[in-house]
Amino acid sequence: MTANIISRLLSAAAAAGLATAPIAGQAQDAMAQGDLLGLPSDLSMLTNSDPNKRVATAVVNGFVITQTDIDQRVALLLAANERPVSEQEMIRVRMQVLRNLIDETLQIQAALSQEIEVSQAEVDQTYARVAAQNFGQEPGKMDDYLTSIGSSPAALKRQITGELAWNNLLRRNVAPFVNISTDEVNEMIERMEASRGTEEYRLGEIYLSATPETSSAVEDNARKIVEQLRQGGSFVAYARQFSEASTAAVGGDLGWIQLPQLKNEQLEQVASEMTPGQLVGPIAIPGGYSILYLIDRRQVLMADPRDAVLSLKQIQIGFDPGTTEAAAQQRVARFTEGVQKIRGCGDAENVAAELGANVVTNDQIRVRALPEQLQNIILQLQVGQSTPPFGSFEEGVRVLMLCGRDDPKSAAGPDFNQIMGQLEEDRIEKRAQRYLRDLRNDAYIEYN
Fold first, then answer.
1. Which GO terms describe its molecular function (predicted)?
2. How many helices (H) and strands (E) does the chain have?
3. Which of 58, 143, 246, 318 would give a disulfide with 396, using CB separation of 3.0 to 4.6 Å?
4. Rounded mean pLDDT of the chain?
5. First to last CA, the chain
6. What pLDDT is stored for residue 42 in this prediction?
7. What is the mean pLDDT of residues 117-122?
């Protein structure tokens, strides 16, 4: 988990700018409730009505979250933002960071109250590992980078401390009391065998809870999230920041499931019609709104053709600078005609030489590693056949020739221990979410 800290913080930059904010339109939806309280229809606020503009820092059970703490975390988030941040967006970014810091503080305090301490050596070791993963052979550049963007090594090390402390607390106080019986695992295996050949889906979900009074505001916020995701935002980052489901900590990943496990007919219908890579939402469901992302789909315990290992030859031509479009088109036509005359992979190098083309061989590439558009084409080829030409004048035009394919064996599915591990993780995660909610409910938090 900690190995991905910096990439998670950076990828969450856009997500943090979409924290839920009060929307005036929701007053209409709550009018009936207001009448019950005898509230006037025209309110005159005696102080600033926007709490986001009043709250800058917080004291959590006596621990002060300073302006500097927030500034340095915000700087780390904004470093990945490729667009200007408006004043209103900055307010929401800061509030999201403050909420994250409050949760982090509660987690560290909970661990300390149980005499679970994280040593400075552990933190430094993890920091060095993250630095090496992001900066290769020069991890010392991490310090300079963080300082250059207005953050600091201390800010990142504080988050590392929070994650290590929380993991250690769960490992000692929660995990030992999660018991998965042999019968539960065997029952899961039997269900999988009974479902052999049926469709299963790997879904990502962002769930936002709503009441009748907040429904309008939550739906509006969900639409903004979908808009940002369609513009290239990270689904994992948004799920971690905003999803209220127990899967938020794993980026909203529900894992491989069958649709009845969603326990909602509308979600089942929507998911059944989705294609891998598709995003749908917001979907109104009892208690709130759901945003679905289909990561992949397959047949239960059946071999996936995309796991086939291929032997490919890539035959490619390039174009000299200054080549006219007409001349390039003529060369592509000649290349296409020549490729069609290749008599199997053994003849590829000879014909390529005549065409002035390069040949690159790859004997260990899985179908799923190719772009999706090429996957469907490759799966229809016989050995010795090639794809249609693709590419551009700038990057070169190429074809892929299939020289061999090792089809996957029938999938055996996860073994007993893997299934037990999955069930344990799911149960631990749900208890962890309840644990954190309890910490929030019991905390003394003063806002400045």
1. peptidyl-prolyl cis-trans isomerase activity
2. 18, 11
3. 318
4. 76
5. 32
6. 52
7. 89
* 3-class secondary-structure state, position 201: strand
Cβ-proximal residues to 319 (8 Å cutoff; 6+ apart), any chain: 328, 331, 393, 396
Query: At a CB cut-off of 8 Å and minimum separation 6, what does 263 contact?
Result: none
Contacts for 228 with CB less than 8 Å, ≥ 6 apart: 14, 15, 18, 238
Going edge to edge, which strands form the sheet with 288-299? 253-257, 199-209, 288-299, 279-285
pLDDT given for residue 409 in this prediction: 66
Does residue 280 contact residue 274 with C-beta atoms inside 8 Å? Answer: yes
Query: Residues 213-241: pLDDT tens digits?
Result: 888 888 888 888 888 788 777 787 778 76
Give the position of tokens 């065409």: 355
Taking only the tens place, the pLDDT of each residue in 63-78 is 888 889 888 888 877 7
- Nearest Cα to 78, choosing from 2, 163, 128, 17? 17
The CATH 3.10.50.40 portion of the chain extends over: 199-299, 305-406
Contact 88, 422 (CB under 8 A): no
pTM over the 0.85 mark: no
Number of Cα atoms under 13 Å in the Cβ half of residue 108:
18
The two three-digit tokens of residue 35, written as one number: 């009448």
Average confidence (pLDDT) over 429-441:
82
Q: Is the pLDDT of residue 281 over 50?
A: yes
Q: Distance between CA 306 and CA 304 in Å, rounded?
A: 5
Q: What is the CATH number of domain 199-299?
A: 3.10.50.40
